[in-house]
Amino acid sequence: MPDPNFEDGINYWNDQPASIDGVLGGFGKGTLPRVDALGSRQFIQYLLPSLSTVPSAARPLQPASSTITFRTRALDVGAGVGRTTQSVLLHLFDDVVLVEPVEKFIKTAYKYCRESQTSPKNLRFSEEWRGMSDSTKSVTFIQSGLQNFDPMQIEGNTSCIGRVGYQGGTSAVYDVIWCQWCLGHLSNEDLIKFFGRAKAALRSPSEGLIVVKENLCDDLEGGGPRIVFDETDSSVTRSDAAWLKLFEDAGLTVIRKQTQEGLLKGLYEVKM
């Protein structure tokens, strides 16, 4: 089976509209974006309840001493037009680094974010990028693939499109590294190397998270790992067993698995 070809993948996505509907394969105008974002936020808050801004099932009433005293930071890779940053990460984190290789996608994300800063009254609430109009949060836009991307050195081998919002100092490490619907464009070898760099970029080895949210194909009969190649966009879909083997090879520990509920029938299973 062939490995994903990065250039072929870029060419495919260059032919898709730079919109939420475009990056979601035509499913961006229905319930999928909202259901997906809600599931993602709940998943993060379950694992990092200190990020919840109000007492809830994820975060019971706690003394003031448990409040986070540093600016939290997340990395959003293969971010497309910024959907996950806008609808998930900015709800929970102070600073986000958004990484996307397709030029028209990342420039569209930057445009959307700038509009939240300069013309927030013209946007619907669902379109708002939180913390931009008052510059309490920040988003840094980096154009890069993941094959050689180092989260700790975002200036190297990348193109910085710009930074919007808060302009003060930020941490060099991350509390969460979010990888969704993009890792199928990496070979197993490149993915293991990326996971190694991502793990080294976490603020805390015990509390920092690398979240992978991807489509799953079925395992082989008997439960073995399976990978399916898609010629359309030169990507692969991995089975649950294939992902678990990759995590093991990369030295990662799986602390929670959860299926995304509420998606349309007929689509691949999506798991975090």
Structure description:
With 272 residues, this protein is α/β, with parallel strands linked by helices. Helices cover 27% and strands 18% of the residues. The chain is built from 7 helices and 9 strands; from the N terminus they run αααβαβαβββαβββαβ. Strands 1, 2, 3, 4, 5, 6, 7, 8 and 9 form a 9-stranded mixed β-sheet that branches. The mean pLDDT is 91.
Radius of gyration, CA atoms, in whole angstroms: 18 Å
Q: Describe the global form.
A: globular
Helix content: 25-40%
Tell me about the largest β-sheet: 9 strands, mixed
Helices and strands, in order, run as: HHHEHEHEEEHEEEHE
Mean pLDDT: 91
Derived from helix and strand composition plus strand pairing, the structural class reads: alpha/beta
* Helix count from the secondary structure assignment: 7
Low-confidence stretches: none
> Could you tell me the strand content as a percent range?
15-25%
Q: What is the count of β-strands?
A: 9
Gap between N and C termini, in Å? 25 Å
Give a concise summary.
By secondary structure, the protein is α/β, with parallel strands linked by helices. It is built from 7 helices and 9 strands; from the N terminus they run H-H-H-E-H-E-H-E-E-E-H-E-E-E-H-E.
